[in-house]
Amino acid sequence: MTGICEGRVAVVTGAGRGIGREYALELARQGASVVVNDLGGGPEGSGSDTGPAQAVVEEIITAGGKAVANTDDVADWAGAERLIQQAVSKFGRLDILVNNAGILRDRALVSMTPEEWDAVIRVHLRGTAGPSHYAAAYWRAQAKATGEPTGARIINTTSASGIYGNFGQTNYGAAKAGIASFTIIASIELAAYGVTVNAVAPIAATRLTAGLGASKPGGKPDGMPNMFGPEHIAPVVAWLASPESAEVTGRVFDVGGGHIGVAEAWRLGPIAHADNGWNAADLGSIIPDLVGKAAPNVTMRGVPAQGGN
C-alpha cells in the first residue's frame, strides 16, 4: 500500500531530534522524499552538529525511503533560500514545508535579557518566515507557469504557550503566538496558488519541553502506550501534508495525549456602544461588565480556569 504522501517532496526544519525527527520519519513512511534540516544546536540554541540530521537521513534510507541532510541556519534568510533550493535541485520539486525549528530560553519577564528575547524570536519567527518566503516564491512561479494550483502545504509549529499562555515564556509564547497569526495570514495570501497553511501546537514530551507541566507523560498505566510521545503528533502533520487536506487551511490544531483539537482564533466577544464617544469616568462600570460577560481566559491546557475571569 502506498502512503498518503507518495511522490511528494518535503522539507522539515529542526528535524534532527524530537518531534521534528518523528515528522521526517512519518513523511518518509508515507512516501515523501525528505530534506532533513537541523543545525544540530542545543535546546537553548548553542553550538552546531551535523550528526543529528544525518542520523535521521540514514534511518530513512535504511527503511527504504529517500532523504538528504541539510544543516543550514533557517533563521538566516540566505540559509533558508539554500534549503528550499536544495529540495528542488535534489528531488526536482517541493510540495511540503514543515517549519519546526525552535529553541527555549525561559525566564520571567522581569529577569529576561535582550539576548534571551532576541534569540528565541529569531529562531522561531525568522526560522518560520524565511523558509516560507522562499517556498512561497517557488510555488507562485510554479502556479503562474502551469496555470494550475500547486497542491502545496505549509505546516507550522506553534505551542500552547503561544496560544494559551505559560509563566516564564514571554519570549517563546510571543514567538509562537506570532507563528499562529502568521499561519492564518499566510493561508489567505497563498490560497491563490493552491497552497494550504496550517499549524500544530504539539503536546509531547521531548528535550525541549522537559519540565513543562502540559507535556509530562506521568500516570501511564503499565502496558499502555505513552500517548505523549512525539510519534503521536507526526500522523496529523503527515495528513496535513497530503493531498487529502486540500480543504483545510488557516487552522491551528492542538495535538497530543491522544487528542486532536481545533484551537479557535481570537474573536470579538461582548460589546458596548457609545454613539458620542466615551468618557473615561464612565468606564468603571462598563468595562468590568464586559469582562464579566466575556469567556474566561484559558489554562495551558486550553480550557477555562476554575473561578472565571
Folded structure, characterized:
By secondary structure, the chain is of the alpha/beta class. The chain has two domains: 9-263, Rossmann fold (3-Layer(aba) Sandwich), CATH 3.40.50.720; 270-309, no CATH class. It is 38% helix and 13% strand. It has an eight-stranded mixed sheet, with helices on both faces. α2 links the parallel β2 (33-37) and β3. α1 runs parallel beside α2, α1 (18-29) packs across α7 (234-241) and α4 (114-146) runs parallel beside α6. The chain starts with 8 loop residues before the first strand and ends in a 16-residue tail after the last helix.
What is the mean pLDDT?
A: 90
The total count of helices amounts to 8
| Biggest beta-sheet profile | 8 strands, mixed
CATH superfamily of the largest domain: NAD(P)-binding Rossmann-like Domain
Hey, roughly how much beta strand do the residues contain?
5-15%
First-to-last CA distance: 51 Å
Structural class estimated from helices and strands? alpha/beta
Number of strands: 8
Helix content: 25-40%
Rg, rounded, reads 21 Å
Looking at CATH, which topology of the largest domain would you report?
A: Rossmann fold
Order of helices and strands: EHEHEHEHEHHEHEEH
How many structural domains are formed by the residues? 2
Strand order of the largest sheet: 3-2-1-4-5-6-7-8
Tell me the name of the CATH class of the largest domain: Alpha Beta
Low-confidence stretches: 210-224
How do the strands and helices of this protein lay out in sequence?
Layout: E1 9-12, H1 18-29, E2 33-37, H2 51-62, E3 67-70, H3 77-91, E4 96-99, H4 114-146, E5 153-157, H5 160-163, H6 170-190, E6 196-203, H7 234-241, E7 252-256, E8 259-263, H8 283-293
Parallel strand pairs: 1-2, 1-4, 2-3, 4-5, 5-6, 6-7
Antiparallel strand pairs: 7-8
Helix pairs in contact: 1-2, 1-7, 3-4, 4-6
